[in-house]
Amino acid sequence: MTDAPGRAYHDGSQHALVQPALADAFQFRWFDPAAWGASAEPVGSGGRGAAWFLDGDRGRWVLRHYRRGGLPGKLLDDRYCYLGSSRVRALREFSLLQSLSAQGLPVPTPIAAWYERKGLTYRAALIIERLENTQSLLSLDQTGHLPLWEAAGRCIRRFHDAGVYHADLNATNVLVRPSSGEVFLIDFDRGVQHASHTANAPWKAANLARLERGVHKHWSAGTDNTPEPFLKALKQGYA
């Protein structure tokens, strides 16, 4: 299926990759939010309505079903062209998260990845560790939060220095734990880690520019502060 560390399971058209420590408890029903009953709570924002907080015996997790956006999403919704297991998005993200975690980079631990093939298409889902007591960087819009934006800049720089490209770097995919100042990056769908890269590789500047555009676009109208000081702090941390 993939060379990512994990236990592989197969059941007809269904396939899964699971953290070895949880393999003894694995069930394919993990990927069905209805099977969790009241223990599955829809995530309030992001994820195109396809993410749930899970509260189970083995821990508190997040389940995300992959769904398309834009015009393709209206036509295919949650189905993707099957080009081999090595191209399945959930397995690729699981593998990348495993690798980044092993390198000491602040990402959620991947729990399990799943896909179900039907003809020339497949649908997929991923379960990751829930990062407790965190909030999105975008929600930290008070002057006292400026040091956290600087910490976020340092965090992003760590990933870039490691050659990690985040395909959807925006302030909602940067989670901060205010009590400790810890910063995490989430949602690595279509992300890659370049084995070789230069300090001034163009994709790094493009990554930061994307984040900056998103902050300006989604900045809360309910705050008296403008985003400029916060972005300045982020860039200072990144420098």
From TrEMBL:
User: Which top-level enzyme class is recorded in the Swiss-Prot or TrEMBL entry?
Assistant: transferase
- Report the GO terms under cellular component: plasma membrane
Does Membrane count among this protein's keywords? Answer: yes
Q: Which Pfam families match?
A: Kdo (PF06293)
| Membrane topology annotation | Peripheral membrane protein
Gene Ontology BP terms = lipopolysaccharide core region biosynthetic process
Give the metabolic or biological pathway. Answer: Bacterial outer membrane biogenesis; LPS core biosynthesis
Protein source organism = Marinimicrobium koreense
User: Which gene is this protein's source?
Assistant: kdkA
Entry annotation: catalytic residues? D168
Q: Which domain of life is it from?
A: Bacteria
Q: Which UniProt keywords apply?
A: ATP-binding, Cell inner membrane, Cell membrane, Kinase, Lipopolysaccharide biosynthesis, Membrane, Nucleotide-binding, Transferase
Any one Gene Ontology MF annotation carried by this entry is: ATP binding
Name of the molecule in the record: 3-deoxy-D-manno-octulosonic acid kinase
The family database entries (HAMAP family) matched by this protein are listed as: KDO_kinase
